[in-house]
Design a protein that fits this description.
The protein has 287 residues and is α/β, with parallel strands linked by helices. The protein contains 9 helices and 12 strands. It has one domain: NAD(P)-binding Rossmann-like Domain (Rossmann fold). A 6-stranded parallel β-sheet has the order 2-1-3-4-5-10, with helices on both faces. A two-stranded parallel sheet has the order 6-9.
């Protein structure tokens, strides 16, 4: 069984490459703004499933580059899903909590109506719709707050700032489930393999780490585990304005992925310990 993965250099694709039967491709091999090349790559590949771990992920920049975000997150994903459908192989797409408007405090169900607040969320939702319309075997895995030892993420930002400052103000009224790229990669892998023999399991699923926490709480745990003495002051979102609005409620109900694929929510605090151990010396004060 072979799997083709787009987004080779990204956080999740880096973790997917731990699996020997994964063939990952980068921007030089396939630029996602070139739909013909995307189609050709899948049609020519001798693979049993495709996972799209590539995306336009610059959430704030997307507000001023909506067409670019749409081309990568919607148009390219659509072509991938169409190509996979033509070949009769499963397609797994990673999507986001940003498809929701963040209202309320109930964890979002995969069946809840999305209403994205910004351009990034809109482009990811448009991608989801296009994938469903392609009509092939597919899974859309919505996740949140991805972190790893590689790439740009909140953990690495906090470690950098925590080594420069004694005190930080962090947003406390956005709540979600931090998700390690490694756990997400495992979930994508298991789902793609599961779909090969069970196309009827196609659909939208939620997957995130547990327990839910605020960004401020996440930062406190990072500093505690990294042995950094930083005071975290809790602030509301209104005191940290960003070009793209963020959902306050990013909690995802992950029950269906457990029921259908037997994938449990990982404890992100345990995954954080592993990520800190994976960081090169100098990027963490962990003993
Ligand atoms: N990060 C999060 O907190 C988060 C939260 C929820 C959902 N997600 C979703 O999770 C998935 C994986 O995220 P991630 O954090 O692993 O992403 P990431 O680290 O930002 O990596 C994105 C990947 O996409 C590639 N890419 C972007 N534009 C491309 C283009 N035009 N042609 C070819 N490749 C292109 C990048 O290549 P280059 O290195 O060449 O730029 C990179 O390999 C994405 O679908 C994202 O929307 C992420």
């Amino acid at each position: 069984m072979k799997i083709l993965v787009f987004g080779k250099t990204g956080q999740v694709a880096t973790q997917l490459q731990r699996f020997k039967n994964v063939q990952a491709v980068d921007r030089d091999q396939v630029d996602l703004t070139d739909p013909e090349r995307v189609m050709e790559m899948i049609m020519k590949s001798d693979v049993d499933a495709v996972i799209n771990a590539a995306a336009y992920t610059a959430v704030d920049q997307a507000e001023s580059e909506e067409a670019q975000a749409m081309a990568i997150n919607c148009d390219a994903s659509k072509v991938m899903a169409q190509a996979a459908a033509k070949k009769g192989i499963p397609f797994v797409q990673i999507s986001t909590d940003y498809v929701f408007n963040g209202k309320g405090s109930r964890p979002w169900l995969p069946t809840d109506i999305p209403a994205p607040l910004g351009a990034y969320g809109k482009s990811k939702l448009a991608g989801e719709i296009a994938i469903r319309e392609a009509g092939g075997t597919h899974a859309i895995l919505r996740t949140s707050w991805v972190f790893s030892a590689t790439g740009n993420n909140f953990v690495k930002t906090m470690l950098r700032l925590g080594q420069e400052r004694d005190e930080l103000s962090i947003v406390a009224d956005q709540i979600g489930g931090p998700t390690s790229a490694a756990a997400l990669a495992n979930a994508c892998y298991k789902v793609s393999m599961g779909l090969v023999n069970h196309p009827e399991k196609s659909g939208v699923y939620h997957f995130s780490g547990a327990p839910n926490i605020s960004w401020a709480g996440f930062a406190r745990e990072i500093f505690a585990q990294a042995n950094l003495a930083v005071q975290v002051n809790e602030i509301p979102t209104s005191e940290f304005p960003t070009p793209a609005p963020r959902p306050k409620n990013s909690r995802l109900n992950c029950r269906s992925i457990k029921e259908i694929f037997d994938i449990s929510q990982p404890d992100w605090r345990i995954d954080l310990t592993k990520v800190l151990a994976d960081l090169p010396p100098g990027q963490t004060c962990q003993n």
